[in-house]
Amino acid sequence: MSAAWRWVRRNALLVYAAIAVLYMLAPIVVIALFSFDKTSGGKLDYAWNGLTLEYWRDAIANEAVNEAMITSLELAALATLVATVIGTLMALALVRHRFRGRTVSNLLIVLPMATPEIVIGAALLSMFLIYGLELGFTTLFIAHVMFSISFVVVVVRSRLIGFDRSLEEAAADLGAPPLTTFRTITLPLLAPGIVAAALLAFALSIDDFVISNFNSGTTETFPLYIFGVSLRGIPVQVNVLATLLFLATVVAIALVLWQQRRAEKLAGVAAD
Amino acid sequence: MWSPARRRRIVPYGLLGPGAIWLVLFFVVPMYYMGQMALRSGSLESGGFTFSWEWANFGDALAGNEEQLLRSFLYAGSATLIALAIAYPLAYAIALRAGRWKLLLLFAVVAPFFTTYLIRTIAWKTILADASPAVGVLQFLHLVPQDGRVLATGGAVVAGLTYNFLPFMILPIYASLERMDVRLIEAANDLYASSAMAFLKVTLPITAPGIVAGVLLTFIPAVGDYVNALLLGGTGQAMVGNVIQSLYLQQRDYPEAAALSFVMMLAILLVVAVYLRLAGTGAFMGEEEEAR
Predict the structure, then answer these.
(1) Inter-chain touch B245–A118, beta carbons under 8 Å
(2) A17 and B89 in contact by Cβ < 8 A?
(3) Backbone angles phi, psi at A37, to 5 degrees
(4) Between chains, do B33 and A34 touch, taking CB under 8 Å as contact?
(5) A49: pLDDT confidence band, cut at 50, 70 and 90?
(6) pLDDT of residue B283
(7) Do A90 and B9 touch (CB under 8 A)?
(8) How many Cβ pairs closer than 8 A exist between chain A and B?
(9) Residue B138's pLDDT band (boundaries 50, 70, 90)?
(10) What number is the average pLDDT over the span B99-123?
(11) Which residues, 6 or more positions from A43, have their beta carbon under 8 angstroms from its beta carbon?
(12) A99 vs B9: CB contact, 8 Å cut-off?
């Protein structure tokens, strides 16, 4: 048996993991690659036609793509802000307090995550239709906050469990009022969890197609725009912006992880 | 002013309030209205739909859509099984074997989350297109007939579903493996269990809750999905989500669409209930002998 074969056998699981990860990343590579595709008419045709930098140079040349992207960014920013605030408050209530109705509250948070998106979208549309509400940015905002809340609660809650409370107790012992303790001790220590939750909410919102498709009216988000043009031909700029969005998220996540590590180190020093 | 004891009782409700109200108003209440919509009759042309206990909508919704309903469960079930087969070894490798590469691998696994769902699926359309190298390889291996195609087949839809929901399978399994006390495996080995035996009797039962969670998080959204069938499937691969979507947004037959949504939810609940009974929360794999 050759040495190479022995190595493969010993590391079979890691080799398998590497292949699986390549599989996970394949579409992202394709998206990035095809943002350089020299296609005729500026529309993707699902085949490679040669290399060009043209569409990166004209990344923001397509008005319709830009408009949809801006709508998506505004919607995601607003929905993230609201969902993160009320989701964090909910997580605090669930972890820090015993009260009647905890089980029901937990169910209320789990159920939206266990419901197919199409049902959430259809149910909201049914209600909006019955009340004759005009579909648009507002209904999208309502829906995006709704489906983000549960995920924010789950992320912040996991950070709150196993949270060292000795610092808070020390502050209270030194006479700090509850709100001051919360602002100067709890919030900074909780910040990495809140930022991670906000990032997840933002990603969910900017990515959502199914629920938005039911409740958008004539408002067009980035995914809705892509769906609209997917039958007529997708401008290459879509891939350029998707690649940029992906890179921006990678940088944001790296920053959060870095900050989280630093916060943990600081908390560790403070606890000593 | 309020006494401290009273304030302590009020505080949790104040914290919970805004989120709970939002979820009740825009998740629970809409479900009620969807039920109400499902029992309405009339048409858009004749001035809209009125509530009339129209139970016949459920019969109409089911009739003619059994095929799509059945196909949804078949595709989602296959995708869930394939995802489990891919996810478990991967999660195991990341949690227990990756060492300092752990964070990077974990990131690679969730990275697809950060590109738009639709663009990801369209990328698969490129990968599986007729003239693509990937299909060439499949043809060379005789996994696909020489003149056969992958796009617009059931296989392409299942592949798309598997890919798109894979992170939902990997993360819970990873979390349960990560939490596991590895000394239990060492103990099993010390007691002369082979590594296969240690895996079957120790690792698998301990991570069963992660598997159950992953299966549910993959299966439930996959049943309701219509994007993969729309973009990767052909005319013969429509799932129940495609029908619901078209009834709501194109045909605007809201009562029948609402009724079909309910039928799908009920069918999912039924399958999930049977699955949870079979998988059990504790009686999964190794523990059934204990129960006997």
Answers:
(1) yes
(2) yes
(3) -80, 130
(4) no
(5) confident
(6) 41
(7) no
(8) 229
(9) confident
(10) 82
(11) A233, A234, A235, A236
(12) yes
Note whether B11 contacts A109, CB cutoff 8 Å. Answer: no
Percent of chain A's residues with pLDDT above 90: 19
Write out pLDDT tens, residues A70-109. Answer: 999 999 999 999 999 999 999 988 888 888 888 888 888 8
Answer whether B220 sits within 8 Å of A116, measured CB to CB: yes
- Write out chain A residues lying below 8 Å of B117, CB-based: 207-209, 223
Q: Contact at 8 Å (CB) between B267 and B73?
A: yes
Using CA atoms, how far apart are residues A131 and B181, in angstroms rounded to an integer? Answer: 54
Q: Residue A242 falls within a domain, yes or no? A: no
Residue B149 buriedness (CB in 10 A; 0-12 / 13-18 / 19+)? middle
Q: Which of A13, A34, A239 sits opposite B92 (nearest CB)?
A: A13
How high is the pLDDT of residue A195? 87
Between strands B48-51 and B40-43, the pairing is antiparallel
Asked if the structure places residue A19 within a domain, the reply is no
Which domains, ranges and CATH numbers included, belong to chain B?
Answer: 65-291 (1.10.3720.10)
- Please indicate, yes or no, if residue A11 is contained in any of the structural domains: no
Identity of residue A224: L
Query: Which residues partner with B51 through β-bridges?
Result: B40
Name the residue facing B116 among A119, A222, A257 (closest C-beta). A222
Count of domains in chain A?
Answer: 1
In a domain, A272, yes or no: no
Looking at the complex, report in whole angstroms how far the Cα of residue A72 sits from the nearest Cα belonging to chain B. Answer: 11
pLDDT tens-place string over residues A201-243: 988 898 889 999 989 888 889 888 888 887 787 888 788 888 8
Give the best residue of A10, A15, A96, A130 to mutate against chain B (max B CB count within 10 A): A130
Domain housing A207: 63-234
Q: Which of A129-138, A187-196, A226-235, B42-51 has the lowest mean pLDDT?
A: B42-51
Residues of B in contact with A239 (CB under 8 A): 119
The two structure tokens encoding residue A223: 């995914």
Least confident of A152-161, B45-54, B114-123, B247-256: B45-54
Cα A244 to Cα A123: distance, rounded to the nearest angstrom: 34
- CATH number for the domain spanning A100: value is 1.10.3720.10
